[in-house]
Amino acid sequence: QTQKPLQGRTVTLTAGPTREAVDPVRYISNHSSGKMGYALAEAARDAGARVNLISGPVQIQAPEGVNLVQVNSACDMLEASLQHLPDTDIFIAAAAVADYRPDNAADQKMKKQPGQNELVLRLVQNPDIVATIARHEQRPFTVGFAAETQDVENYAISKLMRKNLDMIIANDVSRSDIGFNSDQNAVTVLWKQAGSADPATPDIGRYQPDQASKTTLARQLITQ
Ligand code: C5P
């Protein structure tokens, strides 16, 4: 029997949205479906990897045979990611993490006050999960996503550098037929070339698979 490409490796992924509590019954979140992250988890499993899928709340089933870790907030997602870091070989951040969370979520349900026509919510910045992992001393091979609406490749490359990633998967979310909630996706994969003369300005590798279903793309991305 031939050895599968990720046999003996552990892949940890983040997927889905995060939920940031406002009070015990309310939260701030986004429309991420988790489809791309779940498709990648399945593809990694099929490639022979052990898979930790750290997921925010989604409406889809986790693939069988992966270790599903359910979380709500960005802070919980970071904690779970760090917990799995020691045995992770490849970290893939596909989650749509909320950039900000309400400062001091209320312990009790907030009440509507008579005559109060405005409410100000103070938000504080969430930790950047993938950047934290990529700066860790036990850093695994770290892959991020970049959803952009313009100048997709340039923004993705600056994100690759700023977050200290090894690879970034860029997609154009200005198109409604692909990306975010869709089953289809069109991406460009960008990575730092090994052996570049100056590590501060590495040569960038580029791979652009044809537009395809998230399942097909995930298989291609994992096996490349
Ligand atoms: O900065 P931006 O949100 O565009 O970066 C997207 C990439 O960073 C994705 O891989 C996403 O999962 C990751 N990210 C993260 N933690 C955050 C924000 C983004 O891991 N707080």
From TrEMBL:
It comes from the Bacteria. The keyword Magnesium applies. Binds 1 FMN per subunit. Residues 11-224 are annotated as: Phosphopantothenate--cysteine ligase. Keywords: Decarboxylase, Flavoprotein, FMN, Ligase, Lyase, Magnesium, Metal-binding, Multifunctional enzyme. Residues 6-224 form the DNA/pantothenate metabolism flavoprotein C-terminal domain. Its cofactor is FMN; Mg(2+). CTP binds at D99, K109, P127, D128, I129, V130, F145, K159, K163. It catalyses: N-[(R)-4-phosphopantothenoyl]-L-cysteine + H(+) = (R)-4'-phosphopantetheine + CO2; (R)-4'-phosphopantothenate + L-cysteine + CTP = N-[(R)-4-phosphopantothenoyl]-L-cysteine + CMP + diphosphate + H(+). One of its GO terms (molecular function) is phosphopantothenoylcysteine decarboxylase activity. GO terms for biological process: coenzyme A biosynthetic process; pantothenate catabolic process. GO terms for cellular component: phosphopantothenoylcysteine decarboxylase complex. Pathway: Cofactor biosynthesis; coenzyme A biosynthesis; CoA from (R)-pantothenate: step 3/5; Cofactor biosynthesis; coenzyme A biosynthesis; CoA from (R)-pantothenate: step 2/5. In the N-terminal section; belongs to the HFCD (homo-oligomeric flavin containing Cys decarboxylase) superfamily. In the C-terminal section; belongs to the PPC synthetase family. Catalyzes two sequential steps in the biosynthesis of coenzyme A. In the first step cysteine is conjugated to 4'-phosphopantothenate to form 4-phosphopantothenoylcysteine. In the second step the latter compound is decarboxylated to form 4'-phosphopantotheine. Catalyzes two steps in the biosynthesis of coenzyme A. In the first step cysteine is conjugated to 4'-phosphopantothenate to form 4-phosphopantothenoylcysteine, in the latter compound is decarboxylated to form 4'-phosphopantotheine. This is Coenzyme A biosynthesis bifunctional protein CoaBC. The chain holds residues 190 to 413 of 423 of the full protein.
